[in-house]
Structure formats: structure tokens, C-alpha cells
Amino acid sequence: MTTAYDFEFTGIDGSPLPLKKFEGQALLVVNVASKCGFTPQYTGLQKIQAEYHQRGFNVIGVPCNQFLWQEPAKETEIAAFCAVTYAVTFPMTEKTAVKGGRAHPFYKWMRERLGRAAHPAWNFHKLLVNRAGEPVGAFKSKVEPESRELRAAIEAALS
């Protein structure tokens, strides 16, 4: 059976980012953009990364330029923006397609497993995977990273 840990992204620095390195951890995979109304959610994503990391949780940021071209920057610029503006420490991928025919295989798999809810309609759509690497939730852009709803789902994914 396929799990999230069977997929690999390319890191924002160009190096391989196999999800296998997070095996046994819960993951929140979020398509992000630097020029979006939801960009301030980086603050909340970094807070939940810091809060839950020691318990076996990681946020994975996936820069995407498919929603009104709100991530036009190069990877080095995205990494610098996230580090300087939001003190981001969680792993980030290179710019990646998250919808349509060019969507990364992880996103296609999540949609097969969770249905339409897993299809990003905008930036900062959140996909949650439990410690077994199974898809357990999809959250629209408006769901804040520190919301009760998302925290409860993270707690369940960690247990």
C-alpha cells in the first residue's frame, strides 16, 4: 500500500527531499505563496511547527505559482523571504504544481484518497497525513494554522 512516505519532492535548495525521511511523523503539506492574502499564515505554520515538532510533526511548505501567479520568485528568493520575514524553519520544496495534469504525484495521490477536498483551490491549502503516512485531512485556505479545527486534527494524527 502506498503511503505519503513513498513520495519525493525536490527541496528548495535543489536537493532531494524524500518524505521517507519523515517516516513515523505526521505531516502537514501546505502549498504556499509569497504574494497572497494568506501569506501571513506562515506565522501560524511556524508556530505549530515549533509547538508539535518534538512530538513527531513537520510542516512541509510547497511553493506554487498556479494561483494568479502569486509565487513569481526564484527558490533562493522564496527561501530568503520565508527566513527573514517569518523565521521559517520547516522544510520547503522547490516551486511545484499542485493541481492539473502537471500536479506533483503526491497531490494526485492525496486527491485519489480524499477526493475533491484534497484538491487545492487556492494558496495555503493544507493536507494532513498521520504517523502511518495515511491521508487524514484536507483544510481550505481560510482554516488558520492555529485554529481549533486544525490543532484537533494534528493531535489525532499524532496519536
Supply the key terms.
159 residues; alpha+beta; 4 helices; 6 strands; 28% helix; globular
Structure description:
The longest helix is centred in the N-terminal third of the chain and has 12 residues, at 41-52. The chain is globular. The model has no long low-confidence stretch (mean pLDDT 96). It has helices spanning 41-52, 75-86, 105-114, 148-158; strands at 8-10, 16-18, 26-32, 57-63, 126-129, 135-139. By secondary structure, the chain is of the alpha+beta class. The strands form two sheets. It has a four-stranded mixed beta sheet, sandwiched between helices. Strands 1-2 form a two-stranded antiparallel ribbon. Helices cover 28% and strands 18% of the residues.
The pLDDT mean sits at 96
* Series of H and E elements: EEEHEHHEEH
Radius of gyration, taken over Cα atoms and rounded to an integer in Å: 14 Å
> Which percent band covers the strand fraction?
15-25%
Could you give the topology of this structure?
Layout: E1 8-10, E2 16-18, E3 26-32, H1 41-52, E4 57-63, H2 75-86, H3 105-114, E5 126-129, E6 135-139, H4 148-158
Parallel strand pairs: 3-4
Antiparallel strand pairs: 1-2, 3-5, 5-6
